[in-house]
Each structure stands twice: as C-alpha cells, then as structure tokens.
Specification:
By secondary structure, the protein is mainly beta. It contains 2 helices and 17 strands. Strands 6-7-14-12-13-9-8-17 form an 8-stranded antiparallel beta barrel. Strands 1-4-5 form a 3-stranded antiparallel sheet, with no helix packed on it. One of its GO terms (molecular function) is peptidyl-prolyl cis-trans isomerase activity.
Length: 222
C-alpha cells in the first residue's frame, strides 16, 4: 500500500495497528489548508481517495490575567512559526513575563522571569522572515530581535501589536522591519489590559509592569 499527499504530509506510512477494516496513517504535516490523500495498492490501483483539511495551528498563552489565543501562519513564515512552536513544545515560555508594556505600541514577552532575570535555554537565532507580505497591524504577533543591523537575531521573544505599527513592516533589505507570524484570535482584551498596568524601570529595563504579568503555560490547541 502506498500513500500520496502531494508533499503536504511527509514520510506517510501505515501504522502497525492498521487492519483490513481500519487503516491508520502516520505522517508529519508540513502544510495547512486542503490536500489530497490517495491510497494505492501494490499494483498502483486506487484504493481510497479523499481531501484532508489541516487548519492553521493555534497556541493558547495562559497568563496571570487571562488567556490569549494565537493563530500561526506557517504559509507566510514557516521557519519563524517552527521556531516559536519549538519553544512552546519545550515548555520554555512557562513562568516567563510580559516584560515590556508600552500603551499605544506593543506588549512583549518570552525572555525573562520575575525580577527581569534573563531565562537561559534560548537556541540559535533565526533568519529574519519579515518580507512575507504580513503587516504589523493591531492584533498581529511578531518576533522581537536586536536592533539594526543585527537582523537575524530573534530567538524566543515576541510582541503583540496594540495598534497598527506599519512602520515596523519590511521596507527594504536595509530596513527589513520585524517578522509577523501570527494573529491574536481571542484575548486581545487581555493584551489591552496589560497596557493599563503601571510600569517602571527594573535595572536597565524600562516599561516593566510593576506587578508581574506571567505566562503560566503555552500550549498548542489546534
């Protein structure tokens, strides 16, 4: 038996618990949207054909003041999404802070624990994917990075745009902006409430909420 998926599902194989009445297929899904699933026997004859719909992945951030659900866009920013999910799967974001809160701009998270202690365990920085057609509009999520010209420097930190910040978009190779990779689909009111938190300075860090806003868990829910 062979499985064809038009490369939307890599290394497809029939599971060992398949039977003559129930076929179980395992594979690694690498695309979202609709893709064909075709089963053929050893002679190449069609056994079964259908269309499988894979939704965009969603991640829920459980925070100390409410939940925020992000819908990721792997079609536009595949390696950026994969990088973010890697941190989600490892549990890295647990007990990290929304450590930078700027009303009328962004709320930023993913790199510090209480007291603005940098969390270890960040992996290799990723290549900037800002030229992907997505804009830093209100409710979108982008990767934080170091300042220009250290473009390929994003690791675990990300920010939610509270307003349309189109000046952060890709303009040119010399002004590449910041890579949008997701959208808030639920809980934008939680992000807005963060912007109402009193902030101050902690060491060299400005705009830090005086009361910790903590990510208690991050998990993929779709």
């Amino acid at each position: 038996m062979t499985v064809e998926t038009s490369s939307a599902c890599t290394n497809p194989a029939l599971a060992t618990n398949s039977s003559t009445t129930l076929l179980v297929i395992n594979c690694s899904v690498v695309a979202v949207g609709d893709f064909p699933l075709i089963l053929k026997n050893a002679n190449g004859d069609l056994v079964y054909q259908t269309t499988v719909t894979v939704p965009k992945p969603q991640v829920q951030l459980s925070t100390s003041i409410g939940n925020i659900t992000l819908e990721l866009n792997p079609a536009a920013a595949e390696s950026t999404v994969n990088n973010f999910l890697k941190y989600v799967y490892s549990g890295y974001y647990t007990n990290t802070l929304f450590h930078r809160v700027m009303p009328g701009f962004v709320v930023q998270a993913g790199g510090y624990t209480s007291g603005m202690v940098a969390k270890p365990g960040q992996t290799t920085p990723i290549v900037l994917q800002s030229n992907n057609g997505l804009s830093n509009l209100r409710g979108t999520v982008a990767m934080a990075r170091r300042g220009d010209p250290d473009y390929d420097s994003a690791t675990s930190e990300f920010f939610i745009n509270l307003v349309d910040n189109t000046f952060l978009d890709y303009k040119s190779a010399g002004a590449p902006g910041y890579a949008v990779f997701a959208t808030v689909v639920q809980g934008m009111d939680v992000a807005d409430s963060m912007a109402a938190q009193p902030t101050g300075n902690v060491g060299l860090h400005a705009n830090v909420p005086l009361t910790d806003v903590t990510i208690t868990a991050a998990q993929q829910i779709k």
